[in-house]
Amino acid sequence: MHSLSYERARDLAHAIELGSEPGSKYIGGGTNLLDLYKSGIERPVRLVDVSRLALNGVEELTDGGLRIGAMASNTVAANHPLVRTRYRVLSEAILNGATAQLRNMATVGGNLLQRTRCYYFTDPAFEHCNKRVPGSGCAAIDGFNRIHAILGASPSCIATNPSDMAVALVALDARVRLAGPDGERVVPMADFHRLPGDQPQFDTVIAPGELITAIDLPPPFAAQSHYVKVRDRASYAFALVSVATVLDLQCDVVRDLRLVLGGVAHKPWRAVEAEDLLRGQPLSEDAIARAGAAAVAGAQPYVHNAFKVELVPRAIARALRIAGGRA
Ligand SMILES: Cc1cc2nc3c(=O)[nH]c(=O)nc-3n(C[C@H](O)[C@H](O)[C@H](O)COP(=O)(O)OP(=O)(O)OC[C@H]3O[C@@H](n4cnc5c(N)ncnc54)[C@H](O)[C@@H]3O)c2cc1C
Ligand code: SF4
């Protein structure tokens, strides 16, 4: 019998005090943590409920940016008027995730820390999973790897990050605000999730006891943006491939852009080479095709996920055409 205690944090200091003790785990909406607890994959001894901390607002910053509290629900974040109008790609990404009921429960902080949906990770019947049991091997490499990574994977793990929101946040150059036993710090969203390397058990750079308190968005980088998500069903399904793009287009020439891929790597994957090919160029079909090819130039597909190498350029083309007003 596994014993588990539950405490609701009174305030931030109380949360960090409780959350820093060995075996403690923060709980936001519980929509991922409790599933993993029920299947024995997560084994906390204490749940520290942070969902009612006064960190659930969305406020404008003096520099023209926006701060989204980590305890804001996915629904609140996606539907906030300033998110919908100034950071459309973020609203679209969140609304493409899960279901309305889940989005009502799920918090922004919890969304960024949800674990991979690799079948071998989520089913404890499989022994070989370096992310779940470090040093045990990786069942996915020679197994059914349809949803797995084609970029940035390692011989230790080929899992993908499942968060739609994270992909858009990287495209928007967001920053993650953290508070922990050693004080506060701010991490660029692009550096928050990590590649698996030989330590795939760590998904992010978050330290023990640290709590996500907010996400800061800088002033909008460009007016045009779009999120494309390709999945097996129209709802209730994670991305096979997704693309977040933010596009600064002037007289049909790409002044600047961001292109970030989801569903292809252990973290949101910025397609830097593709961006470089498009920057300063007219947004022509030819340029879009060259950018798509560059985005998958270093891909390493496995037996069941080679289709992603074709899907990524198509999803990039769709995202750029829609953001650029061509579709
Ligand atoms: C059927 C289903 C379909 C889904 N589809 C999608 C999808 O398509 N796209 C998508 O992006 N997501 C999807 N999700 C995931 C869902 O969005 C996540 O479960 C949810 O965002 C997690 O948020 P939460 O607040 O419930 O996190 P919790 O389950 O409460 O926590 C998740 C993790 O984050 C930690 N944590 C929570 N808050 C904090 C904090 N502030 N600081 C530090 N640590 C914290 C917890 O300790 C835990 O480790 C789906 C989930 C389900 C069940
Ligand atoms: S891909 Fe990663 S999460 Fe999946 S079985 Fe291999 S080590 Fe585990």
Describe the structure.
The chain is an alpha+beta fold and 327 residues long. The chain has 13 helices and twelve strands. It has helices spanning 12-19, 33-38, 74-79, 81-86, 88-95, 100-105, 108-113, 119-122, 164-171, 189-192, 272-278, 285-295, 307-323, and strands at 5-8, 24-27, 46-49, 58-60, 66-69, 175-180, 183-188, 211-217, 224-230, 241-250, 253-262, 269-270. The strands form three sheets. The chain has a five-stranded antiparallel β-sheet. The protein has a four-stranded antiparallel β-sheet with strand order 9-10-11-12, with helices on both faces. A hairpin with a 2-residue loop joins strand 10 and strand 11 (253-262). The longest helix has 17 residues, at 307-323. Flavin-adenine dinucleotide (FAD) binds at residues 25-33, 50, 70, 97-98, 102, 105-107, 109-111, 113-114, 162-165, 211-212, 236, 238.
